[in-house]
Amino acid sequence: MDEYIQDFIRESEENITELNNSLLELEDDPNDAEAMDSIFRTAHTLKGNFAAMGFQNGSNLAHAIEDLLDEIRQGRMTVTSEIMDHVFAGVDKIEMILAEIEEHGESKTDPGATIQDIRATLEAADGAPVEAEIDAEPENETSDPKAALSLLEDPSVLADVDDVFHACVEMRDSQMKGVDAMFVLGEVTEHLELLDAAPSVEDINDGEYGDGFDLFVTGGEQEAVTEIVDGVGKVESATVSDVTDEVPNAIADASEASESESTPEVEPADGSEDADGSEDVNGSTETDTQATKAEVDEIQSIRVGVDQLDDLHGMVEQLVTSRIKLRRSVKQGELESAADNLDELDKITTSLQDTVMDMRLVPLKKIVDKFPRLVRDLARTQEKEIDFEMEGKSIELDRTILNEISDPLMHLLRNAVDHGIETPEEREANGKERTGTIHLRGKRERDRVTIEVADDGGGIDADAIKTKAVSKGILTRNEADSLSDEEAYELIFHAGFSTTEEITDVSGRGVGMDVVRNTIKRLDGDISVESEVGGGTSISLSLPVTVAIVKVLFVESGEEEYGIPIKNVDEIRRMGAVKRIEGEEVITHDDTVYPLIRLGQALDVPGETKNGDGMLVRVNESERPVAIHCDAVSRQEEVVVKPFEGILSGIPGLSGAAVLGEGDVVTILDVESL
Q: Where would a tag sit more exposed on the chain, N or C end, judged by fewer CB atoms within 10 A?
């Protein structure tokens, strides 16, 4: 069951995200029929899935949401922010229930209060004049079970069934009668056995019925049948009767009528067609469910398409062949042949590495699709009007990177809403549109991805930042005055720095920004800020597409070995003359002075280190204009770098660790903070 629950949780998470975004589209454009259709499909799937897994609290809540949205679809209620607040509150409660199920395998949350709020909103709509017209509509002509039985051309399909129930289904007004009926038939066939219908199932699916239709079912008690049929959001009412005792009489009457006179002029629907229709309903319901699951599977496995699997299989075959050839060469002492086999093996493993890294790539949409709801709720709380636009959601990054940047992006968006976009009144006073705009853009550039969060708000005041830095003792007045605006913007990443005086539940720009920068740097990324007072702010993150399989230069100091990413290295040479400037050791290169860092002293390396001799590793000026002294440089090698986490994260000079082929763990240096 654990496997099924995991599948249910993953599918429900996808459905909740899709539901949230469709609801936002509907709130933005109440006439968006496509959004409404998506909402109903998703809400119905959620309701059915929760019920199928035995989590009735989630199913009941989804049912209430479905009923409220149906009132909107039928035109009895209009889309307002207040009504959508009730809907979103219900979706949030479903998400809470799902989180409990994921953590504990069950949910003890009682959604009764939320359901009551939704039902209260529905009751308010029931007092509208439209409801009176509905009450005045005539009853379904086939409400009499005997009359309904007489409409069946061959009642014998009901014979030899222990319990036969007749459900007289009254439907609400609809412009999509076939779609509404499909939901009813899908719910019935999911939980019961549909024996026959009047009119035929095919006609019902086509919307060819009056105010309702009749179903004959078995497979449950009368109360359960009533609850199932009457529980569908499109059903106005359902009357269920036990007609088991009436079936023999109906069969006899049909037989007599067949013998004494010609068949009455009733819409033809022979048993085989009815059976086909019934199978169509079952098939469509199952197909809908399978399509939903397939969509989830496709999202989860789209990076592992058939072509990639074939390539992977082919490379594994080549690996096996190369292993056999290499073993034979070594066994026979043919060193030249063994070297050729090693070269071949190297090419195969490189291709295998590239393929596996591609399979790890995940679209940016996996994390950003939840952000429109975040921005909407924050804007409501802040009483601001904001358009949120996203571009480049299909850009792919390694799933590890996506997991890491989810929270930093959320920080940036929260700050953009809270401290970036002004209130509608402030914007109007400054000659702007009342509605502000926030953009989230993703863009691929070779082996890196740039993600930008930009707003057209008030911008960052560099002078205010400098003044705040002086008041906090971060800089002296002279140091602050010497900073350019771009350098001043960097101060927002100082821990706890913020220019806003008011502490809110959201944050001022700066709160958590140190976490953002540290996370991006740990992922071998860069972060930059551009801003204009009154014109808005843009914060860009530059990240590698894949996690670090990097080429590393291994250096030794005392009894320890460390790795320096090759991309950080500009020059390697023997240790030369050392000079002192203001008491600090430096070396020179092309008339440029580089501060000297002795690795053994900086990291308090155990064992005796070479202070005079040894090797010098000069770091790229773009990274940091310094030179690092070590005892020896041993080799270069490609390794997988795992960033430090928990209490080890944030240690100056260290970025992560790599496990070598023989099992040794080597620390990778962070030259910027060493």
A: N
List pLDDT tens digits, range 301-337: 344 566 777 787 888 888 888 888 888 888 888 888 8
Task: Give the count of beta carbons closer than 10 Å to the beta carbon of residue 607.
Answer: 11
d(CA 357, CA 122): 51
Same domain, 130 and 152: no
Tokens 């100082």 sit at which residue? 494
Is 55 a domain residue?
yes
Q: Please give the model's pTM, rounded to 2 decimal places.
A: 0.55
The answer to whether position 573 is within a domain reads yes
Shared domain for 258 and 346, answered yes or no, is no
- 3-class SS letters over 410-428: HHHHHHHHHHHCCCHHHHH
Total count of domains within the chain: 5
Hey, is 631 helix, strand or coil?
A: coil
Cα radius of gyration rounded to whole Å, the chain = 34
Length of the chain: 674
Cα–Cα distance measured from residue 86 to residue 261, given in angstroms and rounded to the nearest whole number: 59
Question: What CATH number did the domain enclosing 467 receive?
Answer: 3.30.565.10
Over residues 229-271, the pLDDT tens digits come to 887 777 888 888 888 888 888 887 777 666 554 433 333 333 3
What CA–CA distances, in Å, run from 671 to 514, 568, 654, 668?
A: 19, 8, 8, 9
**Cα torsion for 238, 72, 207, 253, to the nearest 10°?**
10
CA distance 61 to 49: 12
Nearest alpha-carbon partner for 60 in 26, 29, 31, 97: 97
Q: How far apart are CA 572 and CA 616, in angstroms?
A: 6
Q: Can you list the positions of beta strands (E) in 558-653? A: 560-565, 569-574, 579-581, 584-589, 592-598, 615-619, 627-630, 632-643
- 476 φ/ψ sector (left φ>0, alpha ψ -120 to 50, else beta): beta
Q: Kindly give the pairing relationship between strand 165-171 and strand 212-218.
A: antiparallel
DSSP state, 97?
Answer: H
For Cα atoms 138, 142, 148, give the angle at the middle one, nearest 5 degrees.
180
3-class secondary structure, 524 = coil
Phi, psi of 575 (to 5 degrees): -65, 130
